[in-house]
Amino acid sequence: MTNTPDPTLVLQALIRCPSVTPQEAGVLDYLESLMVPGGFSASRMPFTEKDTADVDNLFLRLGSQGPHFCFAGHVDVVPPGADELWSHPPFAAEIHRGTIFGRGACDMKGSVAAFCVAALGFSSDNAGKLPGSVSMLITGDEEGIAINGTVKMLAELQRRGEVPDVCVVGEPTCPGTLGDTLKIGRRGSIHFEVTWTGVQGHSAYPDKALNPITPLARLIDRVSSHQLDSGNAHFGPTTLAVTNFDTGNPANNVIPASANARFNIRYNTEHTAASLKDWARRECETVRQSFGGTYTIDIIEGANAFMTEPGSFVECMACAVEAETGIAPKLDTGGGTSDARFIKDYCPVVEFGPNNATIHQADECIRVDELEALTRVYRRMLDDWFAGERG
Fold it and tell me: How do 95-96 and 201-202 pair as beta strands?
């Protein structure tokens, strides 16, 4: 790549902006100053909503015609925690023995630095004959509640007629070596909170009370021991984790009036949020008929399960990874949620980024040689996809 900045210097500048969600802290200003001289147009997209923090976001684009390739990522970071837990200050971006330390180094300012440098190189090498458009969708609300970030940016891009044809999200995907994992989907997430109400009483006279712990414990036993599915070709089995069981009862001789439990389901494409809601309600009703009492069930949908079907786009991205790293990536759907859950409603999306061993930890870091290799992968993705689009 000719006439491009050093990705290490770019990442250091990004880390030195303490952009803990929802603070911008100068990080978007820096990216504008980096990309606009390279020919990219810049659109700031601040969004607000009642009872949420205002968030600033940035859309960068080179070219106005299709086909349109987009990189997406976030520059907000989680709080660093206590300084004494870090061997290098969390926002100093110090390099020690070939490794860059700092909050956001791999989640995911490293990827943002890499794809910005890759895009600048692509722009420089294709000056005057750009084969389409390259853009970067950069949010400051991924680590937070994700209300004023990517979801609203996409709606605005649709309104403006700028929805990309394909997208690569730079989330850190590799558990071992750069190149080992390309994510083509994510499990869904749904949260349940069940409150069971009985009749309070003295523990010496249980016949005069209706203990809500008994039916709620039975419910939790039923849902946690039930195998929802066995997985499929691209997803492992759906999992259920009980996250809380509480009565708020400080007394040893009182049967409480109510008990509360919470559980979370991470589900594959064998289910939908609607089907899991129906299943949980049937389980509650079955227990109620046997044990009595009453219950309420509150449900929060976190994200829907999705997958980008393997095809020309996925194959092109996987081949680019292998060409630069020598590793054929596993096509994976595991892990938590990401902003890909919003992007998949607009265009095909995959995720690829660096090693994820230190995300959200003290001494978060990325090796300099890994950052450089990641930059080469992103550049190869651009070259190969546009070459394929031109036939």
Answer: unpaired
Please indicate whether residue 324 is annotated as part of the active site: no
| Per-residue pLDDT reduced to its tens digit, 217-241 | 999 999 999 999 999 999 999 999 9
- H/E stretch holding 112: helix 109-125
Tell whether 98 and 156 lie within a shared domain. Answer: yes
Backbone angles phi, psi at 151, to 5 degrees: -60, -40
Q: Print burial letters for 355-376: b (CB count within 10 Å at least 16), e (below 16).
A: bbebbebbbbbbbbebbebbbb
Taking the mean position of all CA atoms in its chain, how far away is CA 6? 27
Do 107 and 349 contact (CB within 8 A), yes or no?
no
Coil, strand or helix: which one is 30?
Answer: helix
Total domains present in the chain? 2
142 is catalytic: yes
Are 196 and 295 in the same domain? yes
Residue 352 in domain: yes
Residues of the chain with pLDDT under 70: 1-2, 128, 390-391
Residues 90 and 198 in one domain: no
Catalytic residue among 76, 162, 171, 283: 76
**What are residue 181's DSSP bridge partners?**
330
Which of 272, 303, 334 is at the close of a domain?
A: 303
Look up residue 47 and give its DSSP letter. Answer: B
Say which of 24, 141, 142, 171 is annotated catalytic.
142
Token readout for 187 is 């499990």
CA dihedral 306, 312, 314, 318 (to 10 degrees): 170
Domain, as residue range, for 318: 7-186+306-389
Give the integer Cα–Cα distance in Å for 378 and 230.
35
Same domain membership, residue 319 and residue 294: no
Q: Which helix (H) or strand (E) holds 69?
A: strand 68-74
pLDDT in tens, 162-199: 999 999 999 999 999 999 999 999 999 999 999 999 99
The CATH number of residue 230's host domain is: 3.30.70.360
